[in-house]
Amino acid sequence: MGVISRGVKNAFRNGVRTTSIIFILALSIAMSLIMLLALKTVDAKISSVKGSIGNTITISPAGVRGFEGGGTLLTDANVTDVKGLSHVVSTIGVLSDRLESASTNLISSIEPGEFGNRQKRQENSSVSSNNTSANQSFTMPVMVSATSDINSLSSLNVSELTLTSGDKIDASSSENIAMLGKDLASKNGLSVGSTFKAYDQDIKVVGIYDTGNTFTNGSVLMPLKTLQNLSSQTGQVNQIVVTTDSIDNLSSVETAIKDKIGSDKVDVVSSQDQSQNAVTPLENIKTISTYSLVGSIIAGSIIILLTMVMIVRERRREIGVLKAIGSSNTKIMAQFISEALTLTLISSLAGIILGLIFSNPVLKIMVTNTESSVSTGGPGRVMGGGGGAMMLKIGNGTGNALREMHAVIGWDIILYGFLAAIIIAIIGSAIPSFLISKVRPAEVMRAE
Amino acid sequence: MLKVNKLTKVFLSADNKVSAVKDVSMDVPDGVFSTIVGKSGSGKSTLLSLLGALDKPTSGSIEVGGEDVTRMGDSKLIKYRRDKIGFIFQNYNLIPNLTALENVTLPMEFAGIKKEERIKRAESLLKQVGLDLAKQNRKPGRLSGGEQQRVAIARALANKPKLILADEPTGNLDSATGKIIIDLLKDLARTENTTIVAVTHDEGIAKQAKITFTLKDGRLV
């Protein structure tokens, strides 16, 4: 029987003690693993959130707000210039227009209501104080938007877009085609394949969509080039939506855009607050996991160290005998390290199984607690789109970011866990056995 | 030849110094069965620990085979204990979770002897000390005191030491078993030319020794 096998055998010398040690150590290892896992999951989520939520910048002509204000329209060349900036992942040109009754046969699905009528009265009173007929026959204009990327919801300023019939438009096309919001299509009795008049041209309906929003369901979507041609704004856009590689780079890209186009020519708005709202609770979970990880590693180390101190002290006499019959200090240490490793490896195995079982539930509890602690931050907001774009509703990305988190245990995490446990076991057993093996045999035997 | 010259061991306690062994000088020729006698607390066990290099003397020297043990470094001391000395303790000090056979193979494992060889030798030694073959794979807890002491003697002989130090080897045994153990040790001294130094307070055993040293208050009288 060698030193190693003697150490392994010693690990099972006392059944009750061995079971207790393995149980406590397994809990500590499971806790470390769960926290390591939570940390890695949250870290990955933070990177993902930083790369997907709130990493957009909207560029509008300086002074423009909705269809009010001035400014010079942006151009396709500006889109290309911005695309060339570092940390910019994509740029989408957006053009919006209002179809008044004179330029289309479409009837708006949106009723003016008290607010719209009051606005119209104020507009008319500034033109002619005696004109009352406008008040009676007023209808809302139909909003038409065009984009170079129909799949980018952020450029369309909607949080969701579902096709209810037909197909999506090809955003690169220059044909007279359009998608209609379901309310607008219903109001005008239009379906896929129908045509309507706009800018004195026949426009073919290729798809009907639903955004879940009354305003955007009453709008028209067209390919960018089509609207540019029809509205005589060739090569022009009134908004550029820029996506950066991370929210960490929003500020530098914002500065670069102003430098490139001219800070007096554009208004640049980033969605940093939104991303910050999403990242803050994740950062909270990360902090909790980091502290818990450190705590459980310290706890595990102390358990192993105290266990081995206890075992070594208990076997002082045996160590004395081993030395008296010719064992070297190294062999004594190796025996105790092998014993500690046996206990640790079994505990690690049990800890990993516990970790696998409890990692997702624990992560869920942490997410729930963090979510409730940040829920006072508000569920999102409705704001006006720059450059006359549709009204947009930015959903609360925070909740989604948290709810969509799932712990995935990779071999690397298991390996890290094993390595950490083994290193702790080696140190925890080597220190007390080294100290005791340095003592003269007679001293430890006399102490009994 | 075991040669002890002016050996002194002083223990430092909280307030005072206690001299357990004072100025002890003694010679034991090779192959001689000798005993150290004295009352409890006279320093017998301390002297034996010093001879076996289990403790460091405060002063004096111990020569075994011409080498001064007190001047040896740690690695030399390990070799000395492993190759030159065989220790027999009063309470046997067998490793409880190892079988009788495994206990005997232990010193040979430390000496780097191959597994097959050490098992063969351990079986032969256990047979020599009279332990039944059937009991060789029993753990100490399932052996009687006499059987455990036989295993301890076999373990002490494992690496063919030139000096066997026995601390009250029959202290926990009945007189019949004690006699068998002493006969075994005497036989070893005669047949293997092994020097044996046994601590005892049993006058009957002391009378069987070729040389007897008497200790009183740490001094030889």
From TrEMBL, chain A:
It is a multi-pass membrane protein. Keywords: Cell membrane, Membrane, Transmembrane, Transmembrane helix. Pfam families: FtsX, MacB_PCD. InterPro entries: ABC3_permease_C, MacB_PCD, Macrolide_Exporter_MacB. The chain crosses the membrane at residues 21-39, 291-312, 332-358, 413-436. GO terms for molecular function: transmembrane transporter activity. Residues 110-134 are annotated as: Disordered. GO terms for cellular component: plasma membrane. It is found in: Cell membrane. Residues 22-259 form the MacB-like periplasmic core domain. It comes from Berkelbacteria bacterium GW2011_GWE1_39_12. This is ABC transporter permease, putative ABC transport system permease protein. Residues 124-134 have a biased composition (Low complexity). Residues 294-439 form the ABC3 transporter permease C-terminal domain. Signal peptide: none annotated.
UniProtKB/TrEMBL annotation, chain B:
InterPro entries: AAA+_ATPase, ABC_transporter-like_ATP-bd, ABC_transporter-like_CS, ABC_transpr_LolD-like, MacB-like_ATP-bd, P-loop_NTPase. Residues 2-221 form the ABC transporter domain. Keywords: ATP-binding, Nucleotide-binding, Transport. It holds the Pfam family ABC_tran. GO terms for cellular component: membrane protein complex; plasma membrane. GO terms for molecular function: ATP binding; ATP hydrolysis activity; transmembrane transporter activity. It comes from the Bacteria. Belongs to the ABC transporter superfamily. This is ABC transporter-like protein, putative ABC transport system ATP-binding protein. It comes from Berkelbacteria bacterium GW2011_GWE1_39_12. The lineage of its organism: Bacteria, Candidatus Berkelbacteria.
